[in-house]
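Lay summary. Proteins are chains of building blocks that fold into shapes, and those shapes determine what they do. In this project we predict the shape from the chain. Here is one chain we studied, written as its sequence of building blocks.
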Amino acid sequence: MNLYLKIILFYLPLLITTLILGFINKKIKWYFWILAIFTGMLAIIPTVAIQFLFNLPKSDSLFMILLTCLLMNGITEEFCKGACSMLMLPKKHDFMQFFFLCLISGLSFGTFENVIYLISGTKNVELRMVTAMLIHVICAGLDGMFVWALFQKKFRIRPLISSIFVHGLYNFFANLPGYFKLLLIVILLYGIFDLILLVQIYARDKSESKTDSSSEEASSKDVK
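And here is the predicted shape, written in a compact code that computers can read:
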């Protein structure tokens, strides 16, 4: 298949998902969806730079492989994605709006990464279309929760820690031979479960804070 046609096919899931979420979330301005795609691709630059400058030597030790995956993939990639997500102006959106933008940013990151692998001649890159892109979407959503909380003047570290460990463990098991790769499914399922759980917690906190603020306004009117 022609290389350019493959690249177009790689970007189709991103474009279709963006259109669907944009249709569902009409309150989000169209240019923020473009910005989300841009920030996802932008996050690749500092990620590659850091991984190149601080590349750890290869080792057969399981501990060193795990450490490398946590540092180079978990911490580096998720910090870069989280930092770039700040360009999407979290204060201008409510939680779910910013969360959806982060999902698109993560999908953009994974798509651009796959295209780089494709151009560099990596074998079986098509297999990454599902698992690798899904892990980037999950982790970007978790990163977005951490960033959004920061802009609400709340320090909630759990989403970021979860993102780092999910991504690091995913790469760790991806580097192991044979049936160990089946554990990738477990990691993905855990990531999806934790993402859904945290979304529910954040959404509940938001509704409770709205209830508290409305009751305070009502009580102040009663006093007057």
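What the prediction tells us: The helical segments are 3-24, 30-42, 44-53, 62-85, 95-120, 131-151, 158-174, 183-223.
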